Amino acid sequence: MIHVNRVVLDVLKPHHPNALEFCRHIAEIGPDYRVKLTVQEMDEKTQTLKVVVEAGNIDFDSLQEVIGRMGASLHSIDEVEVASAPGAAQ
Fold first, then answer.
1. I want to staple 38 with a disulfide (CB 3.0 to 4.6 A). Which of 1, 18, 50, 85 is the partner?
2. Residue 14, preceding bond cis, omega within 30 degrees?
3. pTM of the entire structure?
């Protein structure tokens, strides 16, 4: 089985929720989620973000759903790290 351990996303979001709330909602997807957010650009209504999510096995569908529920849109997946689980067929 293949696990996604890290993704780097380009996200456009409104000013609300703020960066802290945005990260908290993403981290609530799973018990071992770590989220790092960097604001790349900002205008009157939106922020362009670099969002790094790390976990033992990222549920990407849930991640996309949470981002959408907060009124943000995923522009691109800029980086991905995957690994095979121990005991996976070779």
1. 50
2. no
3. 0.91
